[in-house]
Amino acid sequence: MKPIIFCDFDGTITNTDNIISIMKKFAPPEWERLKDDVLRQKISISSGVGEMFSLLDSDLKAEIIQFVKEKAHIRPGFHDFVEYTKQAGFPLYIVSGGMDFFIAPLLNDILPTGTVFCNNAHFDKKKIYIEWPHACDEQCNNECGCCKPSIMRQMAGADDFMYVIGDSVTDFEAAKRADFVIARDILLEKCISEGLPHRGFETFYDVMEILKQREEVKS
Question: Can you name a GO cellular component term (predicted)?
Fold first, then answer.
């Protein structure tokens, strides 16, 4: 089977969750309740994240972008990991519940157009509002926002071996559909508790080593 890789962005490619960082810096206190409700799966991701951004004034756009550029750090090894996937011929897709306006400046020089799936933020009203161009298909009713399992069904074929790389509860539905998960933080805990096939990681050098070892065994 041919490897195909679906990788989260916030907290996975970057060392921190950019949405959480933005909310801590710019949002009023009520964002905390929304965040907790999403993490506890009491409300959907799209509802929670949409409401969090609706707390922010649109005229903060430039300030937020500058803040993310200064604070978001790419996890060590990511550039080499991208090059490794190119050399090995492994399709790599970024599937993110994050927003285009802060993902694009960080990834545009690293990955080709068409390989990044995320949500769209709009600033033409008083408050920021979110558009969900990759909503759930007919097989998912979780209101994911950017529905990672739906994207996997769209992009992967029957002969593909699906790797999912992620860190959060928002990656769990994708992880359940994966053939193998490379996880950290909350997603790693979920993989352990649910018995999903997985390995843990901290850097993308770890990810490359895991992939190399597994592909050598498979071959």
Answer: cytoplasm
